[in-house]
Protein backbone atom coordinates (compact mmCIF):
# COMPACT_ATOMS: atom_id res chain seq x y z
CA UNK A 1 0.00 0.00 0.00
CA UNK A 2 1.42 3.35 -0.99
CA UNK A 3 -0.55 5.67 1.27
CA UNK A 4 -0.11 8.38 -1.36
CA UNK A 5 -1.81 11.57 -0.17
CA UNK A 6 -0.88 15.22 0.06
CA UNK A 7 1.96 16.65 -2.03
CA UNK A 8 3.21 14.54 -4.91
CA UNK A 9 4.75 14.88 -8.34
CA UNK A 10 3.19 14.12 -11.71
CA UNK A 11 5.52 12.85 -14.40
CA UNK A 12 4.35 13.00 -18.02
CA UNK A 13 6.30 11.23 -20.73
CA UNK A 14 5.39 12.28 -24.28
CA UNK A 15 6.44 9.78 -26.95
CA UNK A 16 5.21 8.37 -30.25
CA UNK A 17 3.12 5.27 -30.79
CA UNK A 18 5.83 3.73 -32.98
CA UNK A 19 8.65 4.23 -30.47
CA UNK A 20 10.22 0.95 -29.38
CA UNK A 21 12.51 -0.35 -26.66
CA UNK A 22 14.12 -3.74 -27.19
CA UNK A 23 11.50 -4.67 -29.78
CA UNK A 24 8.41 -3.82 -27.72
CA UNK A 25 6.33 -0.63 -27.63
CA UNK A 26 8.17 1.97 -25.57
CA UNK A 27 5.02 2.88 -23.62
CA UNK A 28 4.66 -0.76 -22.48
CA UNK A 29 8.33 -0.97 -21.51
CA UNK A 30 8.00 2.28 -19.51
CA UNK A 31 4.92 1.04 -17.62
CA UNK A 32 6.70 -2.23 -16.82
CA UNK A 33 9.72 -0.28 -15.55
CA UNK A 34 7.56 1.96 -13.35
CA UNK A 35 5.71 -1.05 -11.96
CA UNK A 36 8.94 -2.96 -11.26
CA UNK A 37 10.25 0.06 -9.32
CA UNK A 38 7.15 0.10 -7.09
CA UNK A 39 5.70 3.40 -8.24
CA UNK A 40 2.09 4.10 -7.29
CA UNK A 41 0.66 3.57 -10.78
CA UNK A 42 0.88 4.59 -14.41
CA UNK A 43 -1.59 5.40 -17.18
CA UNK A 44 -1.01 5.43 -20.94
CA UNK A 45 -3.14 7.70 -23.11
CA UNK A 46 -3.22 7.67 -26.90
CA UNK A 47 -3.84 11.14 -28.30
CA UNK A 48 -5.79 12.01 -31.44
CA UNK A 49 -3.52 14.83 -32.56
CA UNK A 50 -0.23 16.49 -31.73
CA UNK A 51 3.23 17.61 -32.80
CA UNK A 52 6.60 17.69 -31.15
CA UNK A 53 10.13 18.95 -31.70
CA UNK A 54 10.02 18.27 -35.46
CA UNK A 55 6.70 20.18 -35.80
CA UNK A 56 5.40 17.25 -37.90
CA UNK A 57 1.65 16.87 -37.35
CA UNK A 58 0.40 13.49 -36.13
CA UNK A 59 -3.37 13.00 -36.36
CA UNK A 60 -6.03 10.30 -36.53
CA UNK A 61 -7.92 12.23 -39.22
CA UNK A 62 -9.16 9.97 -42.02
CA UNK A 63 -7.49 12.24 -44.56
CA UNK A 64 -4.11 12.22 -42.78
CA UNK A 65 -4.08 8.98 -40.84
CA UNK A 66 -0.87 8.78 -38.84
CA UNK A 67 0.67 5.50 -37.80
CA UNK A 68 2.60 7.33 -35.11
CA UNK A 69 0.02 9.01 -32.87
CA UNK A 70 1.15 10.80 -29.71
CA UNK A 71 1.29 8.71 -26.53
CA UNK A 72 1.44 10.11 -22.97
CA UNK A 73 2.53 7.97 -20.03
CA UNK A 74 1.59 9.54 -16.68
CA UNK A 75 2.70 8.58 -13.20
CA UNK A 76 2.11 10.25 -9.82
CA UNK A 77 4.33 9.50 -6.84
CA UNK A 78 6.85 11.11 -4.51
CA UNK A 79 9.37 13.26 -6.37
CA UNK A 80 12.30 11.28 -4.96
CA UNK A 81 10.97 8.03 -6.46
CA UNK A 82 10.42 9.66 -9.85
CA UNK A 83 13.87 11.29 -9.83
CA UNK A 84 15.42 7.89 -9.06
CA UNK A 85 13.86 6.26 -12.14
CA UNK A 86 14.45 9.18 -14.56
CA UNK A 87 17.94 8.07 -15.70
CA UNK A 88 16.55 4.68 -16.75
CA UNK A 89 13.62 6.29 -18.56
CA UNK A 90 15.97 8.68 -20.35
CA UNK A 91 18.16 5.77 -21.47
CA UNK A 92 15.13 4.01 -22.99
CA UNK A 93 13.96 7.02 -25.00
CA UNK A 94 15.31 8.07 -28.37
CA UNK A 95 13.20 11.23 -28.45
CA UNK A 96 10.27 12.72 -26.61
CA UNK A 97 9.51 15.00 -23.70
CA UNK A 98 9.45 14.37 -19.95
CA UNK A 99 7.84 16.85 -17.58
CA UNK A 100 7.45 16.96 -13.80
CA UNK A 101 4.99 19.09 -11.88
CA UNK A 102 3.78 19.32 -8.32
CA UNK A 103 0.31 17.93 -7.61
CA UNK A 104 -1.92 17.52 -4.61
CA UNK A 105 -3.20 13.98 -4.21
CA UNK A 106 -6.76 13.97 -2.87
CA UNK A 107 -7.45 10.23 -2.90
CA UNK A 108 -5.55 7.10 -3.89
CA UNK A 109 -7.18 3.78 -3.17
CA UNK A 110 -8.07 0.47 -4.72
CA UNK A 111 -11.65 -0.44 -5.60
CA UNK A 112 -11.07 -3.75 -3.83
CA UNK A 113 -12.18 -3.95 -0.16
Number of domains: 1
Mean pLDDT, rounded to whole units? Answer: 87
CA(first)-CA(last) distance: 13 Å
H/E topology pattern: EEEHEEEEHE
Number of helices: 2
Helical residue percent band = 10-25%
Oligomer: single chain
Give the strand order of the largest sheet, numbering strands 1, 2, ... along the chain.
4-7-1-8
CATH level-two architecture: 2-Layer Sandwich
- Determine the structural class based on helices, strands and strand pairing: alpha+beta
CATH top level class name: Alpha Beta
Strand content: 35-45%
Largest sheet: 4 strands, antiparallel
Please report the total strand number as a whole number: 8
Low-confidence residue ranges: none
Shape: globular
Topology-level CATH name? Alpha-Beta Plaits
- Provide the gyration radius in Å: 15 Å
